[in-house]
Write a structure and sequence with these properties.
Elements: E1 4-10, E2 15-16, E3 21-28, E4 31-39, E5 45-46, E6 59-65, H1 67-73, E7 83-89, E8 95-102, E9 105-108
Parallel strand pairs: 1-8
Antiparallel strand pairs: 1-2, 1-5, 3-4, 3-6, 6-7, 8-9
């Protein structure tokens, strides 16, 4: 399994958000560098964002979720065309960063 996983739950529908593009960036010398990307599956998950043997260096990262396409496909007006979640990696353990999403709000937490 990838060291970093994520999933999206559309809390307005109570269902996973599938086919949402997700991009991982790392902060390097004050510049965000894209290092991986994926698309949520039918369960709203991206489990293979990184290769299983890839370990992230300690530092600041962010996940960019392109929510605009998802809401447009579902004929839903949204206030957020994208969501970005920044977080620190400070060990080689597994990081799970879920996104709870609705058209006019979102939340996140450090999952397991």
């Amino acid at each position: 399994m990838s060291q970093l996983t994520t999933h999206i739950l559309d809390t307005s529908l109570g269902t996973p958000a599938s086919d949402v593009p997700v991009t991982l960036f790392a902060l390097d010398n004050k510049e965000w560098i894209e290092i991986a990307n994926g698309i949520t599956n039918t369960d709203g998950r991206v489990t293979d964002l990184l290769h299983a043997d890839t370990l992230l260096h300690h530092g600041l990262y962010k996940l960019h979720f392109n929510t605009k396409e998802y809401f447009e496909r579902n004929f839903t007006t949204t206030f957020f065309p994208f969501v970005e979640i920044a977080f620190y990696v400070n060990s080689h353990e597994h990081y799970h960063v879920p996104l709870l999403l609705s058209p006019f709000g979102y939340s996140t937490y450090r999952g397991s």
